[in-house]
Write a structure and sequence with these properties.
There is one protein chain. This protein has about 70 residues and is an all-alpha fold. The chain has one domain. Helices cover about 85% and strands about 0% of the residues. It is built from 2 helices and no strands. α1 runs antiparallel to α2.
């Protein structure tokens, strides 16, 4: 049996956290009935995507720096 390296664990945790963070805005977008709620859901999804992009970039730098 092979041991998981720290890089594999890093990628697994990062993917799971990203998917879990995107669940709320997507469910909000799919479950809304009026245009105001849909606009709010799209804004939240865009802001969260930008936040995840920056957080993932910082995580990549710290993971592969050493």
């Amino acid at each position: 049996m092979q041991k998981k390296s720290s890089k594999t664990r890093f990628w697994s945790i990062l993917v799971v956290l990203n998917l879990l963070t995107l669940v709320y805005p997507v469910s909000l977008l799919l479950g809304c009935d009026d245009d105001t709620a849909r606009l709010f859901a799209v804004v939240v999804l865009m802001a969260e995507s930008m936040f995840l992009f920056v957080a993932d970039a910082i995580s990549f730098v710290f993971a592969y720096w050493a």
